[in-house]
Automatic annotation (TrEMBL):
It comes from the Bacteria. InterPro entries: ABC_BtuC-like, ABC_transptr_permease_BtuC. One of its GO terms (biological process) is siderophore-iron import into cell. This is Iron complex transport system permease protein. The chain crosses the membrane at residues 32-54, 94-111, 123-144, 150-170, 182-203, 223-247, 275-300, 312-333, 345-364. One of its GO terms (cellular component) is plasma membrane. It comes from Nocardioides soli. Its main location: membrane. The lineage of its organism: Bacteria, Bacillati, Actinomycetota, Actinomycetes, Propionibacteriales. It is a multi-pass membrane protein.
Length: 369
């Protein structure tokens, strides 16, 4: 008995020390990932701007960007076409790709915690389908003409917002908003809106309009410009990253289960509603600017958790950087693989994401066997 009493405090001390050392190791690992990914993102932006049918050296890209941002170097030593290509054409496109990738990735992290399903992604809530229906209405029938040159983005966003509200109302109509009800409501609304989009394409009778809609449905960054939609995407994505990082501990509790969340002082219903609003706003704005791009919100959250663990405070930031890098390179491939013809970026992300999904399903099956 005396031996047990003497050993127990030493055992507890060793376990506490191990916990502290493990926490410090994870913090160092997270810092290393964040620094490495941040540097990787900067290098990816420069490389993404330089690569294309008209190649621009990395040094020239850096000079053009710093010249426009801070006025250095004061004397322009590069050609006018290079300046226009870097600043007016490729840089807004690459930055929009980074924002879209980051936005889809963090929304995937939030959704997987919200519905406690590792296969969840922004398609789950029907937001993409709602945006697609709005865009199809604008392209095929001229809806949203009052928004002038921003008609496509505006109607796509309104469609995404309407889909989000509909999903919440359907989930709420059966009582308390739970993970499974949100999941089922999102799937049902998504299929219904996909059918609506198909009907709009069929009813228009316009082959050119149908082709434009289908290209948009698969995603493209070709509309990127220094304009109001770009500024809105920037603000919304950055705010979403900040909010989800701030709610990281609450997401941890929600991902474990409603009972645990209640024990820790988190109200699951209220948090799900808040997450639904943030995700719907972020995905709606992103999809309205880039079209419907799949698999980023599914693949990247898993990669982030494998890198820095399941704690959402760390996973959100890492997922944002990973998503940004992934989508920039996907866009580079989309516009250079068959240059001068551009292919939809969604094809590239699907080619990357589909094998990953098969591997994930195989691992889940092995874990449950």
């Amino acid at each position: 008995m005396g031996v047990d009493t003497a050993v127990a405090p030493e055992t507890r001390a060793r376990e506490a020390a191990a916990d502290v050392l493990g926490l410090r190791a994870m913090r160092r690992r997270t810092t290393a990932w964040l620094v490495g990914l941040s540097l990787g993102l900067l290098a990816t932006i420069v490389a993404g701007v330089g690569v294309g049918a008209y190649s621009v050296p990395a040094g020239t890209v850096a000079q053009v960007i710093t010249h426009h941002l801070v006025g250095w170097p004061a004397e322009q030593t590069w050609s006018a076409p290079a300046d226009a290509i870097v600043w007016q054409v490729r840089l807004p496109r690459v930055l929009l790709g980074a924002l879209v990738g980051a936005g889809l990735a963090i929304c995937g992290v939030a959704l997987q915690a919200m519905v406690r399903n590792v296969l969840a992604d922004p398609y789950l809530l029907g937001v993409n389908s709602g945006a697609s229906s709005g865009a199809a209405a604008a392209i095929l029938f001229g809806f949203g003409a009052g928004f002038a040159e921003y008609a496509l983005q505006a109607t796509a966003f309104l469609g995404a917002l309407a889909a989000s509200i509909l999903v919440f109302l359907v989930a709420r109509s059966a009582g308390r908003v739970t993970s499974i009800r949100l999941l089922l409501a999102g799937v049902a609304v998504g299929y219904a809106l996909y059918a609506l989009t198909s009907f709009l394409i069929f009813a228009s009778g316009s082959a050119e309009g149908a082709r434009s809609v289908m290209f948009w449905l698969l995603g493209s960054l070709a509309l990127a410009q220094w304009n109001v939609p770009f500024a809105i995407v920037t603000v919304v994505v950055l705010l979403s990253v900040a909010l989800l990082t701030l709610w990281g501990r609450r997401l941890d509790a929600l991902a474990i289960g409603d009972e645990t969340a209640h024990t820790l002082g988190v109200r699951p219903d209220r948090l799900r509603l808040q997450l639904l609003v943030v995700v719907a706003l972020c995905v709606g704005v992103v999809v309205s600017a880039s079209g419907s791009i799949g698999f980023v919100g599914l693949v990247v959250p898993h990669l982030a958790r494998r890198a820095v663990g399941g704690t959402h405070v760390r996973a959100v930031a890492v997922a944002a950087l990973m998503g940004a890098i992934l989508l920039i390179w996907a866009d580079v491939l989309a516009r250079t693989l068959f240059a001068p013809q551009e292919i939809p970026i969604g094809i590239i992300t699907s080619l990357v994401g589909a094998p990953f999904l098969l591997v994930l399903i195989r691992r889940l099956h092995a874990a449950n066997a």
